[in-house]
Amino acid sequence: MKGGVQIIKVENAINILEHRGFVEQVTDRKLVSELLDSPCSCYIGFDSTAKSLHVGHLLPIMSLVHMQSCGHRPIIVIGGGTTLIGDPSGKTESRPLLSREEIDENAEALKKQLSNFIDFSDGKALMVNNADWLVDLRYIEFLRDIGRHFSVNRMLAAESYKARLETGLNFLEFNYMLLQAYDFWFLFKNYGCRLQMGGNDQWGNILAGADLTRRLEGEDIYGLTFPLLTTSSGIKMGKTHKGAVWFDPELTSPYEYYQFWINQDDRDIPFFLSIFTLLPMEEINRLGKLKDEKIREAKEILAYEATSLCHGKENADRAREASKRLFGKNSEDFADGAPNYELDGGELEQGIPAYILFEKTGLRKTRSEARRLISQGGGYLNGTKIESYDQIIGVDNLVDGSMLLRAGKKKYMRIMRSS
User: Fold this and answer.
1) Which residues, including other chains, have CB under 8 Å from residue 280's CB and lie 6 or more apart?
2) CATH architecture assignment, domain 13-226
3) Active-site residue flag, 72
4) Closest CA to 383 of 364, 399, 367
5) Confidence of residue 412 (pLDDT cuts 50, 70, 90)
6) How is the chain split into domains, by residue range?
7) For the chain, give me the number of helices (H) and strands (E)?
8) Which of 354, 339, 334 is nearest to 394 (CA)?
9) Is 241 labeled as catalytic in the residue annotation?
């Protein structure tokens, strides 16, 4: 017992996070380890700039999953207030400002998605909106009580601001560090939160919150940041040629989400298994040793585990089955989970050259790429090789109301006739 409170011994989460590759910087490794020897509260903030989270948010979310499994209480801060300003961190230009109604609508959608990963029952985790304490702040009082603790010179030295000084940093964005620091202090004061986590571009903001709390309360609170991930090919994690890979199934279907993971570079698979799944490290180490054709097993497990966490086991099962049908011996079978493209009935009646259809559906970026692919024998229609790039495709090619295009070995699109 300590102060009348029973201390429950839990597995130290920082060891797990470091072992799996989550940790970039820690304010004080020894003190954070001591903090995590007992149950504590930790927080990560998510700005509600869109109605869906995406794969780029997955690393911090998975860190909270591990924290909760070790007995700690995650606090997720939906940035309803800070989104009204916009975070300049990692940005070369300012974000478009959203209305309060748009932000609140987005925040509700994010709550539902995060609940797929985090257990909020019985107070095991909290979700709060910083608009609840930021929007009604009195500006003069805020400057007097909070602003006086910030050095402009130190703020300008922060990476989040330095990157924007050349292109222009407006005063609205300049206030962001103060507000995020205020968040950290507020969560400590009202929820006993002593640890903030976030991407490495948030390091300056986290330090500002710890410094503010030390000045106001005489208490030490801590920070931990994650690496900013890029794939081995240099692409920002979670991005494709089509844009972000969203959690919202209406924006990125479970099948497309599954295929995103299947198509990752072989070199990234061991690390992604460690970061984006909950598999034990012994199994991850085994899968990480697979090479050449056998790496497909590791990719399928990564895709299934990641899709199951985001969309549930049932959707993951369907996506896996669809993928097997599309990429197996019976790839001409139409899979319900395959990505669909609706084509106007009039275009199908008239007929459309194959290379134009491949470009139109996104199977190739340009018509010249599509012509080259088909001329080299890489274009298929309903499992049969397309003989010429200008072959006309129309209603006669529909089978039970749809047709299946394939570009190379891996990219499929089911064409539907729009009503």
Assistant:
1) none
2) 3-Layer(aba) Sandwich (3.40)
3) no
4) 399
5) confident
6) 13-226, 239-327, 340-417
7) 19, 15
8) 354
9) no
Cα gap 252→307, rounded to integer Å: 11
Measured between alpha carbons, how far is residue 331 from residues 227, 384, 404 in Å? 39, 10, 9
3-state secondary structure of 117: coil
Tens digits of residue pLDDT in 301-356: 999 999 999 999 999 999 898 777 665 544 444 444 567 888 887 888 889 999 99
Active site residue 54: yes
d(CA 137, CA 134): 5
180: annotated active-site residue = yes
115: tokens are 């609940």
CB 379 within 8 A of CB 358: yes
Identify the DSSP state of 376. Answer: T
> Catalytic: which of 27, 113, 180, 225?
180
- The SS3 call for residue 2 is strand
User: How many C-beta atoms surround the C-beta of residue 398 within 10 A?
Assistant: 15
Q: What are phi and psi of 236, to 5 degrees?
A: -60, 135
> At residue 371, what is the residue type?
R
CB atoms within 10 A of CB 19: 11
Pairing of strands 379-381, 384-385: antiparallel
Superfamily of structural domain 239-327: Tyrosyl-Transfer RNA Synthetase (1.10.240.10)
- Superfamily of structural domain 340-417: RNA-binding S4 domain (3.10.290.10)
Helix, coil or strand: residue 45: strand
Please give the pLDDT value at position 381: 86
Place of tokens 């794969």: 55
Whole-prediction pTM: 0.74
Among the options 29, 51, 95, 372, which is catalytic?
Answer: 95
Residue 291 appears among annotated catalytic residues: no
Question: Catalytic one among 29, 239, 324, 417?
Answer: 239
**Strand 402-407 with 243-244, pairing:** unpaired
d(CA 73, CA 68): 6
CA angle, 223 then 84 then 73, to 5°: 35
Stretch among 29-38, 54-63, 289-298 having the lowest mean pLDDT = 289-298
